[in-house]
Amino acid sequence: MLVAALRDLQWRRRRVLIAIVGTGLVFGMTLLMTGVSRGFDAEASATVRDLGAERWIVREGAAGPFLGASPMSQDEATYLAALPGIEAAGPLVFTRKSVNTPKGGEVDVNIMGSTAGRPGMPAADEGRPPTKAGEVMVSSRLEGYRVGDTLTVAGTSLLVVGRVTDSTALAGTPNVFVDLADAQRIGFAGLPVVSSVAVVGEPSVMPEGFQPSSNAAARADLLRAIAKAKSSLTMISVLLWLVAASIIGAVVYLSALERQRDFAVFKATGVATRSILAGMVLQAAVLAVVAALLGSIIGSLIGPRFPMIVSLELRAHLTLPLVAVGIGVLSSAAGLRRIATIDPALAFGGP
Amino acid sequence: MGDLVVDDLTIQYSSNGYAVRPIEHLDLHAPAGSLVLLLGPSGCGKTSLLSCLGGILRPRSGTIHFGDLEVTSLRGEALTAYRRATVGIVFQAFNLVPSLSARENVVVPLRAAGWSRRDARSRADALLAQVGLADRAAHLPGDLSGGQQQRVAVARALALDPPLLIADEPTAHLDYVQVEEVLKVLRTLAAGDRVVVVATHDQRLLPLADQVVELVPAVSMSEREPEQVRLRAGEVLFSQGAWGELIYVVERGEIEIVVERDDGSEELRAVVPAGEYFGEFGPLFGMPRSATARARSAATVTGYSTRDFRERVQTADALAVPARSRRRVSAKA
Fold first, then answer.
1. Chain A CA closest to residue B14
2. Which residues of chain B lie closer than 8 angstroms to A1, CB-CB?
C-alpha cells in the first residue's frame, strides 16, 4: 500500500506541489521566527561573554548590571573594584541613545562605557578598543561606520577606532563601546556615576548596600526588556505550526475523501485497514518532510538577510523535519479516521 | 474448495432510516465449477447478495457456506483473510485505482497477501498476459478502453487464484465487442473448483450460465378478474418488501399503510379510507412493496391487475367507485 500512496502523490502532483510550497513557506517562516527568538538569547549571551566579566557587583535590589542597574558613584565603584578576592574589575556605564546613520535617519544603539584592558570592554575584531575619551568601537551591525569614521552621539563626536563583529543586544540593537568618561557625559550629563562593576575573581566580602550578580542574571537583564517580543514570536511560531498542520491535514483529508472508492476497493479485496492507514501516514510524512526541507532552504536563504540575528543551528534544521512529520501525522488524524470507517461495500456502489 | 450454498438468506439495510429488505429467504446451491447468473433489474438485491457472498455485507439472517467454511460466521481478521484469499471481485465500474498502472492494480491484493515485490510483479504480468493485456501492463487505467479495464479488473480478481469469483454487472459499461472479450474470460474461469457468480440484468449472458437465479419473481401480466379480499382488523394484506401484482381499492373500512424503520419500529404513512386506492407503485414499476398494508378495522378491498386498473382509471365511469377514489393516496405502497 505504500507504493499506492506514493503513486497517489504523483497522481495529484499539482495539488501536492502547491501544498508543499505553501507548507514549505510556513515552515521557513517558523524556522526564521525560531531563529530570531534564539538570536535574542544568542546575542545576549555573546554580549555578556564579550565583556569578559565573571560576575558583576550592583547596588542591592538592582535587577542586573545593565537595564536593571541602580547607579552608583564612581568612588563607590573604585572602592568595590579593590575588594579582596577580585583579580580585575572595571566600572561599566550602560545607556541607550540614538545616532544618525550615514544614509540618513536614526538608529538606536546600546552605549557601554568602560576602561580599555579591564573587564567590561570587549576585544576588537577590527582595529582596537577605545583607550581615551573621543574614541569609540562599534558593532559591525551598525551599518555605514568603519574604522576612521566619526560617530556623533548626543552631541559628542567620537572617532571609530575599532569594530566588533555582530555585537548586538535588546533585539538586534547594535552595541557601541566608549571610554567611561564619554559614557558618563552621554548618559548622565557628565556626572561621575556608573551602572555596575564588571569583575574577574570572587570578592571575599561584600559591602552593605551592594550585591554580586551572575552572568546569567546579566543575560536575563538584557532579555527581560524583550521578553514580550520573545513570547510574541513564540506565539506566532505556534500559529505557524498550526497553519502548516492545517495545510497538511486538509490535503490528506481531501485525499481521503476523494479516494473513498479506492480504499473501499482495497478493503473489499482483503487489504488490511492498517496497511491503508500506513499509506496515508506515509503520504502525510512525505509531504511534511519535503515541505520541511523546502522550509530549511528558505530559512537558510532569508535568515542572513534579516535585520536581526537569526540563530539557525544545524540542530534546528534537523529538528524541523522530525517536528514536521509529527505534525503531519497528527494533522492527518481526521483523514485517517475517515478511512478507518469506510465501508468496503462502497466498492459496489453501496449495498 | 467446494459448493456455494446459501440457505434462507435475508438481507436488510437501512435507507434514510427505513429498513430495506432486498433479499428475503433466498436459497441457492452453486456446485464447484459452475457459473451462476443473478438476474434482475436494479434494486432487486443482486449487488447486496454479491456483497454478502464476498464477506462485505452481513446478512440479517440465514447462512452462506462455501465448501466447509461458514462465511456468515466470520469476523475481523478471518473475514479479511476470506476476502483476500477466497474471493475475487470484479466491480461494476471496474474500480481500478487511477493512479496505479494495470500491473500495480493487480499487484495490490498480492502484496496485501504478503507476496514479495518481485513475485507479485511476475504473477501480475502472467495474469495480464492471460487476459490478453501483456503489452498494456504499464498503462494507467485512463489509457485503457472499457473492455481492457474490465479485463484488468478480472486479472486483479484472479490475483490470488480465488475459488469464488463474483462479478457485478461486468458488461454494464462495455460495447458489444468488449462484452464478448469479458464473457469469454468469465466462462473460461468457471471451471475446476471455482464458482463464478455474476450479477447482471444483461440477458445476453444467459447462454453462459449453468444456473440462473431470477431475483424478481415473474409477475403475471395476464388479464385476471378483480379479486375481492375481506380482512379482519389488524390483518396484513401485503408486507413491505413483498412482490405483488395487484392494485387495491378500499370498498369498506380503512387500510393503514406503515413503513418499517431500521430500528424495527413502524411509521404510519397513511390511512386509506373507503373509496381510495393504494399499492400501485410496486406492480406498475416492477418493484417490491415499499410499505405494509394492514386493515385498521374490518375491511374489504378489491385488487385489480395493472392493465385492468389503467383501463378503469382512463374510463373513470366504468370504475364502480366514487370519483374521489381516483385520487392517489400519499403513501406509495
1. A351
2. 108, 111-112
Closest to A75 in 3D by CA, of A247, A192, A221: A192
**b/e per residue B293-310 (b: at least 16 CB within 10 A):** bbbbeebebbbbbbebbe
Q: Return the residue of A nearest to B45 by Cα.
A: A351
Q: Please give the pLDDT value at position A69.
A: 93
Band of residue B222 on the pLDDT scale cut at 50, 70, 90: low
> Phi and psi of B288, rounded to 5°?
-70, 165
Q: Which CATH class is domain B4-214?
A: alpha beta
pLDDT value, residue B13: 81
Distance from C-alpha of B144 to C-alpha of B298, rounded to nearest angstrom: 64
Average pLDDT over residues A250-255: 86
Give which of B316, B169, B194 is closest to B249, Cα–Cα. B316
Chain A residues whose beta carbon lies within 8 Å of the beta carbon of residue B85: 270
Q: How do residues A28-57 score in pLDDT, each as one tens digit? A: 999 999 899 999 999 999 999 999 999 999
**CB-CB under 8 Å, A275 with B113:** no
Q: Do B104 and A7 touch (CB under 8 A)?
A: yes
A-chain CB neighbours of B100 within 8 Å are 3-4, 7
Q: Which of A234, A214, A262, A273 is nearest to A7 (CA)?
A: A262
Return the closest-CA partner of residue A177 out of A161, A190, A188: A161
Asked if A266 lies within 8 A of B108 by C-beta distance, the reply is: yes
Within chain B, which residue ranges are assigned CATH 2.60.120.10? 227-326
**Sequence letter at residue A31:** L
Q: Give the residue among A274, A159, A219, A14 at the shortest CA–CA distance from B80.
A: A274
Best of B12, B20, B87, B89 to mutate (most A CBs within 10 Å, chain A): B89
DSSP assignment, residue B327? S
Topology of domain B227-326 in CATH is: Jelly Rolls (2.60.120)
Measured from the Cβ of residue B234, the count of other Cβ atoms closer than 10 Å reads: 11
Q: Please, are residues A81 and A148 in contact by the beta-carbon 8 Å criterion?
A: no
* Start and end residues for every CATH 3.40.50.300 domain found in chain B: 4-214
Residues A58, A70 contacting (CB under 8 angstroms): yes
Distance between CA atoms of residues A99 and A175, nearest Å: 12
Cβ <8 Å between B109 and A271: yes
Kindly tell me the sign of the dihedral angle through the C-alpha atoms of A36, A42, A48, A50. negative
The chain A residue lying nearest B91, using CA atoms, is: A348
Q: Is A1 on the interface with B (CB under 8 A)?
A: yes
A251 vs B171: CA distance, rounded Å: 35
Closest CA to A173 of A69, A98, A68: A98
